[in-house]
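testing teh design pipeline on a random one, pls ignore if ur not involved
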């Protein structure tokens, strides 16, 4: 069974209520219908019911899912109060909170915060920043996590790599230039994502660099080395090592020669990139040249919210909702 089939099966066994704020997007409506038909989740689509019904009719979509209109919902006032309480110390006025609660993105995030939904998937229309900012401001990090970041689950055709072809890459979406402490947090969160979503019982985390075990000296390498020490202190039980080059992390012979005795080198299944440029470029190379299927999730939030690419397909939305539902199980 492929990674995504396993995730879909888990989602189907634990139906979760997931908000889709982008009811004005055709793909979102098609995905919501599929989620109900395939019993993968209980989607709640936000938008004007008249417009959604009209669009659905034109698309041939059966509106078999819940639709909530922030403009008429009896819960909007409650969400506005909640938002005001959460953000007044940051200078948010009541008037601004009333207005934001009508915005589908904020409304959806507030539904999750209030416990009226389990998770949220957005980004078919909105940018990553549009989706991330309210999630960071309102949902916040889960206990024990200092930072929200992301992991890409890479399902590679070469099954000798990582964990039967599975590799988890982090961070490829959120934190542009993590310091050593943030990098350590990203590593610990990615190991947790590997356990929860990939069923990897023993995450083996490699902290990547252009140096392996002191082969080069530079402040960029020092950052990674410090992150290794901090990660060991935060999660002493975690199998984590570095700094190491990409080949030393995933090729057994190179790992054995460049990082002799390392419990991770040559057989890493979780790869931590030193910054967002490296991570984002790295996952795209693996996807385009390595022909891996890839699935992105946010990690570290107190309730799962996930971002889509604006070029996403209907299937991408369905898969991301399934991953979000599975993440709910570990909250
Ligand atoms: N974890 C936890 N909280 C955070 C984080 C984080 N990583 N980043 C910001 N915050 C908090 C801040 O502390 C702040 O909280 P507060 O308002 O309660 O004090 C709040 O979030 C907003 O912070 P800002 O500094 O105003 O937000 P910022 O402008 O830094 O934006 C963002 C944060 C959106 C995550 C930014 O770092 C960003 O744009 N990252 C890159 C996103 C991106 O474009 N990714 C690449 C493309 S995606 C792809 O390829 C699939």
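output:
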């Amino acid at each position: 069974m492929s990674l995504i089939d396993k995730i879909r099966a888990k989602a189907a066994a634990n139906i979760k209520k997931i908000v889709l704020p982008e009811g004005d997007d055709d793909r979102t409506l098609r995905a919501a219908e599929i989620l109900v038909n395939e019993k993968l989740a209980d989607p709640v689509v936000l938008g004007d019911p008249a417009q959604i019904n009209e669009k659905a009719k034109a698309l041939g979509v059966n509106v078999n899912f819940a639709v909530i209109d922030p403009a008429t919902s009896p819960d909007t006032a409650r969400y506005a109060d909640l938002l005001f309480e959460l953000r007044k110390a940051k200078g948010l006025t009541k008037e601004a909170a009333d207005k934001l609660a009508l915005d589908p993105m904020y409304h959806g995030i507030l539904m999750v915060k209030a416990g009226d939904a389990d998770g949220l998937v957005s980004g078919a229309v909105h940018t990553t920043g549009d989706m991330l900012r309210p999630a960071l401001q309102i949902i916040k990090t889960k206990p024990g996590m200092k930072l929200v970041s992301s992991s890409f689950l890479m399902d590679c055709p070469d099954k000798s790599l990582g964990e039967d072809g599975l590799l988890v890459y982090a961070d490829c979406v959120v934190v542009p230039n993590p310091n050593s402490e943030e990098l350590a947090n990203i590593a610990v969160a990615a190991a947790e994502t590997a356990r929860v979503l990939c069923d990897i019982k023993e995450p083996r985390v490699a902290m990547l660099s252009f140096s392996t075990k002191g082969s080069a000296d530079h402040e960029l390498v020092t950052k990674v080395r410090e992150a290794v020490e901090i990660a060991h202190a935060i999660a002493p039980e975690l199998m984590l090592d570095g700094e190491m080059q990409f080949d030393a992390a995933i090729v057994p012979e190179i790992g054995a020669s460049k990082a002799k005795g390392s419990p991770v080198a040559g057989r890493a299944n979780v790869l931590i990139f030193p910054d967002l440029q490296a991570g984002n470029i790295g996952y795209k190379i693996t996807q385009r040249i390595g022909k891996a299927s890839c699935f992105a999730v946010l990690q570290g939030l107190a309730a799962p919210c996930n971002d889509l690419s604006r070029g996403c397909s209907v299937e991408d939305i369905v898969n991301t909702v399934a991953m979000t539902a599975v993440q709910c199980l570990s909250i």
